[in-house]
Amino acid sequence: MTIADKNELRHPPYDQASGFGWLLAELRDHLWPWAGKGQPARKAIQGAGFALALAATVAWVMAALGHLSAGAIIGWWFGWSVFEVLVRLDAKPYVKEGPWWGHLYRRASVMDMLCYVSFKNLLIGAALFIGLKSAGILQL
Known about the structure:
Elements: H1 20-31, H2 43-64, H3 70-91, E1 94-96, E2 105-107, H4 110-134
Antiparallel strand pairs: 1-2
Helix pairs in contact: 2-3, 3-4
């Protein structure tokens, strides 16, 4: 999605999707920070991002196996969040305008993106921690 004007509201490319297709598109939009074909080729950033994403995934798997402390996971998660802000400002520089179920987006400022990524990753991290703790895998 290209957003020219800072104040102009836009619809996402998957705006016409409904039901399960819309849900999958929303999940991909929130969980995958890269834009795909429309993003300029910045191979160094993309390579570093994939490496960091893989490292964060390995950290979560190690935590699930009981080989990594909660503090180490939080550190990895924070590092990933900082990197994700930079990637999203380049690849997907927009945030939702209005309610979460809405379909309007606007260009994100740095603070918008910091808040969006921080809150999103806080929710994901909390869900993962609760899941690992409930399964008896993570000992705090």
